[in-house]
What we know:
The structure holds two protein chains of two kinds.
Chain A: H1 11-14, H2 22-41, H3 44-61, H4 70-91, H5 114-119, H6 123-132, H7 136-147, H8 152-159, H9 163-189
Helix pairs in contact in A: 2-3, 2-4, 3-4, 6-9, 7-9, 8-9
Chain B: H1 8-15, H2 21-33, H3 35-52, H4 63-72, H5 79-109, H6 119-131
Amino acid sequence: MSSNLSQDAGPLRAAPERVPTWEEVAAEHGRFVYSLAYRLTGSAADAEDLAQDVLLRVRTALARYRPGSLEGWLLRITTNLFYDRMRHRARHPTETLDDLEDPGGIAPSGSPSPEETALHGELRFVVQEALRCLPYQFRVAVLLCDLYQMSYEEIASTMGWRLGTVRSRIHRGRAMLRERLSPYLEAAEE
Amino acid sequence: MPEQHPDGRELSSYLDGALRVRRTEAIARHVEACPACARELAALRRVSAALASQQEVEPRPGWLPRVREQVAAGARPGSTARIRLRLRLRLAGGIAAVAVGLVGVGLWLVPPPAAPVTFQDEVRQHLVQMSNPLSDQTSYVVEVRYP
């Protein structure tokens, strides 16, 4: 399996011949970074903070960038920054109020039924909500594997995880998502 | 059944083409003959496809210009989150202070509970009115009922 980082990007975004300027990275890849940050954090405000910090880091890190897969490089910076922050937050839970916010279930009473949700095209929203409810380690694993189509080896290298950890986290993430999403996905298929 | 059931982790890895060739072939044979594992695999495939179909998300319009301003101002990574956290903590502190203040004002405004009126008080009040020469009342009937 090879990564598919440029599914929404042009070929220039995947492999520029020269080191791009900060402005080029921000203008052409800012949306990619933000979108990844949104999937990781699950909220627009947190995604804006994370993506901004990634672009601020890029400003100094560009000096060390070697032409290749720019989006792969940005993905590595973004996921690692997110992962480090979540790990820090888990160790220092009193430093932020965000931890007090319970993401809650995805189908509270009064929500539309799976059939209604599938019919009204809200499946993407339900998937995003289910993703947000995953423990962050599993969220990173399934996102890199299923959305960004990275191989297990690429994920292991990007995150510094062992291959067995990658396998385990991908499966546990999918199993939890399956538990939450099965009624919706089956309704959407019918 | 040609093989023992693969566990979920192996099925997930099989779905991603991340197993050795011999194991991949063995699981392929097994899934073909085992409806339970075939259902399990189909469910995992649905989850994977649902994630893959998520589209890119657009940032809000003013976001990138704000990032440019931060870069121009020489901001360091993490500064925005720290400022946001400080504001949240300040807001939470403010809300707590207002709540305490409101409770205090409420307690101050509520009149103290009226002292229970005793029979002696009632009699005393009537007697005062009877002895008042400016009172326009000329006669009183004091009805005394003992409990």
